[in-house]
Task: inverse folding
């Protein structure tokens, strides 16, 4: 590590599979073809961007930058990598090429990027890579795999946060449903970055300092038959609490009779094994007791048994957390549970009982949350797994990595599909804000243009539609691309995950509500300067073949 590099110990961990061979074969074959053609010293510029926002929305959260920087920091082909490539590539490839690969580093690369956690939009370069053509080309696949899923997952998480609102706790429960352990670990990290409050993933908690949360499974409840299964029946009261008996299990049984009377239900309907399981779990975790109440029947058994154990814990000086619902009509059951908690609070003058947490899981997606709000619910925590970590509504972001300049000469990719035409040259990006504090437009300019100024009129043009243009007088101008990597390594101090999470929240808060709404959101404007517009179309005309009719 270069002595001038800016990095803290909190950011040193890197997934060991992120290495130069985590790439597509054609990157290696192109590297050889470049080398064979004498292009090893040519300087290139690549833009990493995406063309369409995911999930039918109109914003995306940029994530994965820190992992990209770690990749650059450790970019080097090992001896075993070289031996594998010698065995895999055609036998005519010269040994000098493999010697060249073995000595490659990212030291001559300069990487500019938008800060991680920023709200971003189509066509805006998230990352700009400058440096030797071969090295910059070899970075493509790895950078895309580090950015695409991270940004997709963070965006999905941010959408769940918008759907649930700021007062609802969101927990990521997706490890068992994720696409392998690496997908599960990344999902936990970027769900937290996108606005979730915690995860069930213990390793993610250790590596990324994410709060870990969880209750127990149905198997724990069904493993008990009755209170005779409990070898430990006592619980030590909290300091200052004096009880004649410390037989916690017997106290739970006694409380169940009282609760059944209060709620006007038959105590015999409640499952004895479930009560034993709850009592056992409360003895093990008296300061954080939470119970899964739908193993048998939520109303006839689960709620009664939970309230009995919760009231016994209260006698011993402890306060339970709440319940989890993992099946059934979540709106109806959550309302019923809240009514039960309110009745208990009033009957026994325990004011906090009415506010116990109701956590809902059960294959929840964004549509489910919106539907629950329409029905009316009393859930104050969602545990979300499958639909969050697999991004079932859209499984990929579709980010691309395109060459825009070689040795100072602009490069363009043409297509019959205008959406796939690239914007050539090295560019800077500015976010222009209006008088209400909301961003109005992201403006792409040629790098050598003077930046927009506050209070000065700026012509913003659609990149491809000549008649779509508007003047903007910004009240604030924010340059988005910063230098994050150069010869001295990482050049910006990397924020903690919690700080990136705060940036996500702040950025989303600055967007106008119509850009964030669930149905038919308003597209955010991305424009080019008048100079870049002319530059783009000049190169386009020069590069496009002229047809001939006969």
Result:
């Amino acid at each position: 590590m270069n002595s001038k590099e800016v990095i803290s110990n909190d950011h040193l961990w890197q997934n060991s599979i992120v290495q130069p061979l985590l790439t597509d074969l054609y990157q290696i074959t192109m590297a050889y073809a470049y080398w064979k053609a004498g292009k090893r010293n040519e300087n290139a510029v690549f833009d990493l961007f995406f063309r369409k926002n995911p999930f039918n929305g109109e914003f995306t959260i940029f994530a994965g930058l820190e992992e990209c920087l770690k990749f650059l920091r450790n970019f080097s082909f090992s001896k075993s990598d070289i031996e594998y490539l010698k065995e895999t590539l055609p036998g005519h490839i010269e040994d000098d090429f493999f010697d060249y690969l073995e000595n490659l580093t990212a030291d001559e690369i300069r990487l500019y990027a938008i800060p991680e956690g920023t709200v971003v939009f189509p066509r805006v370069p998230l990352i700009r890579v400058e440096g030797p053509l071969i090295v910059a080309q070899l970075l493509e696949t790895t950078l895309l795999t580090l950015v695409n899923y991270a940004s997709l997952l963070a965006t999905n998480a941010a959408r769940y946060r918008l759907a649930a609102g700021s007062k609802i706790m969101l927990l990521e429960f997706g490890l068992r449903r994720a696409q392998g352990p690496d997908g599960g670990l990344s999902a936990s990290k970027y769900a937290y970055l996108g606005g979730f409050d915690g995860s069930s993933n213990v390793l993610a908690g250790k590596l990324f300092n994410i709060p870990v949360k969880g209750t127990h499974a149905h198997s724990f409840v069904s493993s008990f038959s009755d209170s005779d299964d409990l070898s430990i029946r006592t619980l030590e009261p909290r300091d200052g609490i004096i009880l004649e008996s410390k037989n916690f299990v017997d106290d739970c049984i006694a409380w169940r009779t009282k609760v059944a009377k209060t709620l006007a239900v038959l105590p015999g309907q409640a499952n004895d094994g479930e009560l034993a399981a709850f009592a056992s779990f409360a003895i093990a975790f008296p300061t954080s007791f939470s119970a899964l109440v739908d193993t048998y029947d939520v109303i006839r058994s689960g709620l009664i048994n939970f309230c009995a154990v919760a009231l016994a814990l209260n006698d011993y000086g402890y306060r339970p957390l709440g319940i989890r619902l993992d099946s059934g009509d979540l709106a109806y059951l959550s309302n019923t549970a809240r009514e039960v908690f309110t009745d208990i609070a009033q009957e026994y003058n325990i004011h906090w009982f009415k506010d116990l947490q109701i956590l809902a899981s059960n294959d929840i997606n964004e549509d489910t949350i919106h539907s629950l709000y329409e029905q009316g619910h009393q859930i104050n925590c969602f545990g979300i797994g499958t639909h969050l970590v697999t991004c079932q509504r859209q499984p990929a972001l579709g980010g691309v990595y395109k060459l825009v300049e070689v040795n100072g000469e602009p490069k363009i990719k043409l297509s019959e599909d205008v959406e796939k035409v690239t914007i050539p040259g090295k560019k800077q990006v500015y976010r222009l804000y209006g008088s209400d504090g909301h961003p109005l437009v992201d403006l792409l300019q040629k790098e050598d243009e003077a930046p927009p100024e506050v209070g000065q009129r700026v012509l913003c043009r659609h990149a491809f539609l000549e008649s779509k243009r508007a003047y903007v007088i910004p009240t604030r101008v924010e340059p988005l691309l910063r230098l994050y990597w150069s010869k001295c390594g990482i050049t910006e101090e990397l924020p903690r995950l919690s700080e990136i999470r705060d940036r996500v929240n702040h950025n989303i808060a600055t967007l106008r509500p119509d850009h964030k709404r669930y149905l038919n959101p308003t597209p955010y404007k991305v424009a080019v300067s008048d100079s870049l517009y002319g530059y783009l179309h000049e190169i386009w005309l020069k590069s496009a073949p002229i047809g001939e009719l006969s």
About this structure: The chain has a mean pLDDT of 95. The longest strand covers residues 439-446.
